[in-house]
Amino acid sequence: MDIAKYKTWIALALFVLLLIVVSVGYYQSLGIINPKAGNVSFVLLLVLLFAGYYFIGKARGGKPIPVRKIAAFDAIEEGIARAVEMGKTVHFTLGYGPISTVNAPQYLAGLGVLGHVARLCAKYGAQLVSTLGVPELIAAEEEIIRDAYYSGGKPELYNVTYNVRYLTDQQFAYASAVQATIQRENAGANIVVGPFWAESLIFMEAGAAIEAFQVAGTARETQIPFFVLAADYAFIGEEIFAAGAMASGDVETLASIRGQDIGKLLSWILIVVGLILLPMGVKLAEYLVK
After folding, report:
1. How far apart are CA 93 and CA 196, in angstroms?
2. Rounded to an integer, what distance in angstroms lies between the CA atom of residue 103 and that of residue 190?
């Protein structure tokens, strides 16, 4: 056995083992851990960590990471082409509020999708209007859209005051301004990706009123139903992160998503096994935590 070949895995395993021992000892001393409870959740976490590490290593080694096709991602190009045919603009927004919150990953995913949208707008010669209520991302959006138009050979379409419009970080003032922009610009495509709250349906209604082609997505579970109901295509949950990674070409993020899929598969297997055993009087959930 070539020890040198597996030294990274051995070092990682030893580190995780040491971390487990120290953590369990510490939390048991505080009385936080119930020694009679099962460790199923912790084992699932370890599976996710190792799966993510494995696929990231494969991605860094140049191995392609297979990701299932996302209909909403493919539909973005269709919506932009449709807007160009109709002589209309493309509208994009990723949300409002400070970026220093738990929603930061969704903002970053939105930026990745914006880059894809901007490149397609440059490809088809579409005018892009991006509204936002995140002041920290103004410069990032300007750079993304400018780079897309210039690298796409359409620098004449870039106008910073037209393409990037910071509105406000106040919820319903932002919602009203976005709605007005969609209506005023008579957008042919309305693309909404990021964290959203009560304003989500307002955006969809504004786009539907002018018969815009709509693609929307969020990882906030309370708003997903509105997008699924009202948009032509919707990103559901973590699909926005996959879309952001696909748009940016970030193979490491795609690899981590692939690792998460292993955890989902394991969860589905446990659910199916539990349902099979339940009529037999075996409650798998109780068995695993006792």
Report:
1. 10
2. 21
Are 185 and 174 in contact, with CB atoms under 8 Å apart?
A: no
Six-digit token string for 78 = 């269709």
Give the span between the Cα atoms of 222 and 212, in whole angstroms.
24
Q: Of 104, 235, 212, nearest to 226 (Cα)?
A: 235
Q: For the whole prediction, is pTM greater than 0.85?
A: no
Q: Is-contact 273 70, C-beta < 8 A?
A: no
- 3-state DSSP call for residue 128? strand
Nearest to 216 by CA among 230, 202, 205, 206: 230
Over residues 202-216, mean pLDDT = 96
Rounded Cα–Cα distance for residues 134 and 63 (Å): 36
Sign of CA dihedral 14, 17, 19, 22: negative
Burial class (CB in 10 A: 0-12, 13-18, 19+), 202: middle
The tokens describing 209, both together, are: 């009123």
For the record, the structure tokens of 196 come out as 């959203």
Closest alpha carbon to 122 in 94, 93, 144: 144
Over residues 163-196, the pLDDT tens digits come to 999 999 999 999 999 999 999 999 999 999 999 9
105 Cβ neighbours under 8 A, 6+ residues apart: 219, 241
DSSP 69-118: --HHHHHHHHHHHHHHHTT--EEEEEEES-SSSTTHHHHHHHHHHHHHHH
CB atoms under 10 Å from CB of 62, counted, come to: 7
Burial class, 69, CB count within 10 angstroms (exposed 0-12 / middle 13-18 / buried 19+)? exposed
Which stretches does DSSP call E strand in the chain? 90-96, 128-133, 164-166, 189-193, 213-218, 233-236
